[in-house]
């Protein structure tokens, strides 16, 4: 007898229930650890990508986290407004490509309407070509990839239903936007946003337009005496050095300036602590599962002592019997670890499908080196653990085994 695999497979068939329970326990223990690690990494990568369009944020003094959540992830909250003077100052500062006001307060069928400037709508030309064109005058809108509207469609914002503008002849008309462009997919919450000239958002709230009365201009330069406050200003600097210089200049009693990555790093640190705790708990559960499985297999092998004694009595060598027992345990542990790897990935992917719409950005789920190391370590431990039941079974004399 040289090939132990037929005997191993026969044993598996005779003990299907034990094999199934063992695989399930090991797979579950591995899947928990894999899902925790993969989901934390997916959340970290997805949130970082969603902040790529915001190099430097300026807001009124307050909570940096609240400013980032409101401006970057559109988790709209009531936050203090930074003064129009700061907007004028940043718009004329050296070293910037654009300083875009970000103004909220309106929506269409649940899609937030965001007032800004043309440069921010296409991120200073950094985005792939959009369908249609950017807005170039008041009353025009550029929509995100997930807004269910066609180019040329007209929409009436909620506040617009109760607000009327005067045309040049003095007649009142209901505020409406005409869709003139659609942005490429960004895989974040901005795919559901509607971007319009900030002047329209100010007008809806009966605020000055930032320009002389009667002017149809949109965007900078602003009239410093007629610029309302805004929740945030998104700045695109010309260089990294300019970004740090602007951040220093704009950290005053009237404004705060920050890199979203700074705030995210603090959140990641907290997430990392939680992940480490969950990983320790997952590792502890794996150890307990392996011990429980080992005890169950030891009891099972001791109960089958007669089977192994018969094999030895009919001529099977000690190495062959050792290989049979060692292979049975090793394959169970390694198979459970591999199955747990797949289950952990599937669980993380399903969880991402549920969380992503609520977070507002895509979370790329993948298996990394940490998850592979986790499963591989357990499989390697199984190869060592399998030696114990094999060795204990061979210690019993053949005669004693035949009497069992």
Automatic annotation (TrEMBL):
Main location: membrane
Official protein name in the record: FtsX-like permease family protein
Transmembrane stretches, start-end: 277-303, 324-352, 372-394
Membrane-topology annotation of the record: Multi-pass membrane protein
UniProt keyword Cytoplasm, yes or no: no
Keyword Lipid biosynthesis: no
Superkingdom of origin organism: Bacteria
Domain called ABC3 transporter permease C-terminal: residue spans: 281-396
Entry-linked InterPro entries: ABC-4/HrtB_transporter, ABC3_permease_C
Compartment annotation: Cell membrane
């Amino acid at each position: 007898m040289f090939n132990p695999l037929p005997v191993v497979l026969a044993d598996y068939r005779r003990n299907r229930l034990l094999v199934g329970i063992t695989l399930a326990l090991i797979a579950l223990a591995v899947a928990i650890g894999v899902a925790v690690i993969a989901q934390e990494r997916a959340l970290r990568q997805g949130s970082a990508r969603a902040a790529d369009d915001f190099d430097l944020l300026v807001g009124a003094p307050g909570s940096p986290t609240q400013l980032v959540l409101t401006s970057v992830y559109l988790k709209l909250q009531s936050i203090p407004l930074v003064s129009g003077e700061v907007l004028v100052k940043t718009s004329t500062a050296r070293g910037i490509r654009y300083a875009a006001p970000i103004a909220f307060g309106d929506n269409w069928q649940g899609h937030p309407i965001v007032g800004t400037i043309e440069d921010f709508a296409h991120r200073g030309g950094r985005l792939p070509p959009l369908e249609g064109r950017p807005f170039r005058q008041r009353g025009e809108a550029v929509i995100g990839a997930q807004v269910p509207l066609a180019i040329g469609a007209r929409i009436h914002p909620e506040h617009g239903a109760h607000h009327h503008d005067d045309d040049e002849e003095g007649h009142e008309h209901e505020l409406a936007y005409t869709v003139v462009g659609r942005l490429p997919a960004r895989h974040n919450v901005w795919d559901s946003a509607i971007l319009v000239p900030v002047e329209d958002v100010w007008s809806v709230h009966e605020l000055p337009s930032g320009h002389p009365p009667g002017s149809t201009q949109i965007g900078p330069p602003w009239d410093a005496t007629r610029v309302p406050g805004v929740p945030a200003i998104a700045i695109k600097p010309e260089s990294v050095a300019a970004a740090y210089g602007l951040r220093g200049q704009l950290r005053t009693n009237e404004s705060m300036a920050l890199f979203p990555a700074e705030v995210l790093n603090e959140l990641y640190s907290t997430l990392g602590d939680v992940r480490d705790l969950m990983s320790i708990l997952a590792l502890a559960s794996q150890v307990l599962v392996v011990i429980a499985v080992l005890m169950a297999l030891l009891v099972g092998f001791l109960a089958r002592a007669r089977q192994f004694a018969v094999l030895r009595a009919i001529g099977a060598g000690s190495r062959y019997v050792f290989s049979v027992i060692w292979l049975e345990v090793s394959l169970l542990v390694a198979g459970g670890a591999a199955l747990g790897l797949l289950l952990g990935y599937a669980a993380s992917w399903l969880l991402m499908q549920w969380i992503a719409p609520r977070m507002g950005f895509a979370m790329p789920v993948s298996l990394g080196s940490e998850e592979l190391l986790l499963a591989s370590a357990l499989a390697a431990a199984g190869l060592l653990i399998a030696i114990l039941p094999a060795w204990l079974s061979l210690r019993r004399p053949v005669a004693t085994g035949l009497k069992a």
